Amino acid sequence: MYSTNVIENKEERYFPASIDFDLGEIVVTQGVIKMLDILPLELLKPFLARHKGGDWGHVCIQDKQQNDHATRYGDRILSSYKFCEQSIWIITEADRSVTTILLPSEY
Fold it and tell me: Domain of life, per the record (predicted)?
């Protein structure tokens, strides 16, 4: 898989290497709930599936590699996706007890 490094304006290769991991309890912050307004929470399920499946969304290659490593060695995992014209983050804690869906401003 190729990605463009915007800062250095060059293409870099990324080969996914994540393994399956537990999400733990799923928590959605008030900011995301407010953003959804009347939309159902089920609209977030595809993003959770991508996160669990090793598709880290809109993060740099180094963060993708760090996430892949984290699935194997028990570190925190962070994905970023566009939803309703905003970024949402999904963070799974290192101990895999909880996965939080939040706005970057809530971090």
Answer: Bacteria
